[in-house]
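On to our target:
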Amino acid sequence: MAKKKIGLPPLDWLRVFEAAGRLGGFSAAAREFGLTQAAVSQRIGNLEAWLGRSLFVREARGVSLTIEGESYLPLVQDSLQALERNTEDLFGKSPRELRVAALSSHIHALVLPALPAFLELQPKVRVMTDSMTRRSSLEEERTWLQIRYGRGTWPARKAKQIAPEVLVPMAAPGVEWGAPLIDLRGERPGWQGWAEIAKVDELPAGRISFDSVGHAITAARQGMGIALGSVPLAADSLQTGRLRRLDLPELTTKDGYWLTWPEDRARSKRQRALIDDFLQALRGG
């Protein structure tokens, strides 16, 4: 290996090294930058010659970081992120778009009511939504800002709670306890779980069963029976009187609704301010 040079190597070499180390290979780094594998290999070779150290072990089945490469990678990543973040803070323009992905029911119940307040806070920002039909689709969705349901722990994602999940018996005006129950299948506690908490020995019968809490709330709003509905998702109907909470115990769960994003995104002050304003609007001010 050639004698190392003094000073910083070219930024282009460092960016290619970071991508190859993060993605685990020269081919993947080449795809990320739109380069050939040979071009990536040349840049990393130049960096190694500059540093006087081997950063990768070349083998027939691929490449792997050397001990020096493993030590250097997090330093390069932190430095590149700091440079990008500070450049954006000093010279970047304010974001002009906020794009969020969520289940269709969450967009309807959480995002739509929050839009007037958010647009008042950010009058120059355009809002775009990407609606998902299945929660598993969020893992594959390219839109990085997402609303998710759960306990706030997702690998490599930051999360701030919008609202905890609270389930209460709710029905349209004029529908009283004793009317048919609307059953809900899925991960949320159902009527049997609520009955244990409420110490209710006998539950009214039910003839309708949904796998979507949004559908159960809609059915209750149409007078079809009593739903064990989500307070955050039914907030608009409860506020306008289309639904009312029955005078019965509520059931608080360990789950909730969260605004989430990858840990390596939203690094600039402007991006964080945009997310903070959106979160404030989602929380109802």
Remarks:
- Residues 67-91 form the longest helix (25 residues).
- The first strand starts at residue 56 and ends at 59.
- The domain at 97-159+257-282 is CATH 3.40.190.10 (D-Maltodextrin-Binding Protein; domain 2).
